[in-house]
Design brief:
TIM Barrel; 19 strands; alpha/beta; five-stranded parallel sheet; binds (4S)-2,6-dioxohexahydropyrimidine-4-carboxylic acid; globular; Urease, subunit C, domain 1; binds zinc ion
């Protein structure tokens, strides 16, 4: 196994040091290290962070391998600086049995670019009617701890309560896609002044906030862990802040696109900006940034949602919701949080690695950059800026909302347990 001597990197933005990576671990950190036979990586000016962890990735395999596969999504993840991604359950067949989650887990191992951690469905077929075999998925080789019907809300409160009770037994967590379906029938974009003017059916903030309010009360009553996917409104942040102040075991994520973009994007009628939950207002974006900065929102989750051309390049109303996220997630966080001074590099490591790894109960990820730790790390050039070229993305799909946009932060290298999955900005396999 190749050993790497990383010269002059700045761990969490601190002073430059050398980092020796050997046999899958960080072997040493210090000044002027030398190691015969090690491959030298010039990291002058680069920030070193623990490998990023995504709680929310759609890999589309099995079923829609034309949009993404475990392998292409893994490569996009590594190029984005990730060393672990949670693969959402809304595949075809749905990941609602031990067999399917083990298949996804095995495909991730074979690709070998990131740890692919399957999410199990909460209900059979994501239908919201009967609980899936949560225990069997937890006991499987995939060791599932995160359960979600993402794409759909577990809308029935009695079923949600039973899911929380069930996962509590093995320290699992229910990750809720908070959307009261009765309030979003036919919804196309954020409900507000713009949706009225554009004549598109609105998705009111209250549809998200009502479910979050209900679920934090259920989580408190049951004493179980709840995670809220892709929080998108200022009101949701307020409810989460209140719930945390009461000691409810609730965590939450925000997507890069909700930190950067607003419903003004819908003015173009370009379906690349159609996403669920929808892009919201400037005031919501400000509240999400504040919530991520003060820790009310624990993590950034990409909601990387690749779609084939025929599902996306159509009229707005017909297009599927969702956008790519893995390859530009860190760039967007640098632009919206680091450059404005709202999060330092230690904060980025916390929200994009430490806390998501803790929520998913992943060993070996989100660890300190210290001797003896698994060598899961990423090197970033914060000064480099480049325009996003969708044709150059590793994802099999092209639905990036950042096309043509100049963004900061080049991912120079990613290491998964000491193996370079990305070097010099390029995937190694
Ligand atoms: O925009 C979205 N796309 N939101 C979801 O909840 C699901 C996702 C998908 O699977 O495409
Ligand atoms: Zn969702």
């Amino acid at each position: 196994m190749t050993h790497y001597l990383i010269k002059g990197a700045r761990p969490l933005g601190g002073d430059a040091v050398d980092v020796l990576v050997a046999d899958g671990r960080i072997a040493a950190i210090g000044d002027q290290l030398s190691a015969t036979g090690a491959e030298v990586v010039d990291a002058a000016g680069l920030i070193a962070l623990p490998g990023l962890v995504d709680l929310h990735t759609h890999l589309r395999e099995p079923g829609r391998e034309d949009a993404e596969t475990v392998e292409t999504g893994s490569r996009a993840a590594a190029l984005g600086g990730f060393t672990a991604v949670h693969a959402m359950a809304n595949t075809d067949p749905v990941a609602d049995t031990a067999g399917v989650v083990e298949q996804v887990w095995r495909l991730g191992q074979e690709a070998g670019l990131v740890d692919v951690v399957p999410v199990g469905a909460v209900t059979i077929g994501l239908k919201g009617e009967r609980l899936a075999e949560l225990g069997a998925m937890a006991d499987s080789a995939a060791r599932v701890r995160v359960f979600s019907d993402d794409g759909h809300c577990v809308a029935d409160p009695a079923l949600m309560r039973r899911a929380l009770e069930y996962v509590k037994a093995f320290d699992g967590v229910v990750a809720q896609h908070a959307e009261e379906p009765r309030l979003t029938v036919g919804a196309q974009m954020h409900e507000g002044e713009r949706s009225a003017r554009l004549g598109l059916t609105g998705w009111p903030a209250a549809a998200e906030e009502a479910i979050i309010a209900r679920d934090v009360l259920l989580a408190e009553h049951v004493g179980a862990r709840l995670h809220v996917c892709h929080v998108s409104t200022a009101g949701s942040v307020e409810i989460l802040r209140w719930a945390k102040s009461r000691g409810v075991q609730v965590t939450a994520e925000v997507t890069p696109h909700h930190l950067l973009l607003t419903d003004a994007c819908a003015e173009s009628y370009d379906p690349v900006f159609k996403v669920n939950p929808p892009l919201r207002t400037d005031a919501d974006v400000e509240a999400l940034r504040a919530g991520l900065a003060d820790g009310t929102i624990d993590a950034v989750g990409t909601d990387h949602a690749p779609h084939a051309v025929e599902d996306k390049e159509s009229e707005w109303a017909q297009a599927r919701p969702g956008m790519l996220g893995l390859e530009q997630a860190l760039a967007v966080v640098i632009e919206t949080m680091v450059e404005p001074g709202r999060l330092d590099w230690a904060g980025v490591a916390d929200r994009m690695s430490v806390r998501p790894a803790a929520i998913g109960r992943l060993d070996g990820h989100g660890r300190p950059l210290a001797p003896g730790e698994p060598a899961n790390l990423v090197l970033v050039d914060p000064a480099a800026r480049a325009a996003v070229d969708p044709a150059a993305l590793a994802s099999r799909s092209r639905n990036s909302p950042y096309a043509g946009r100049e963004v900061p932060g080049r991912i120079v290298a990613t290491f998964l347990r000491g193996t370079a999955t990305v070097l010099d900005g390029k995937a190694t396999r």
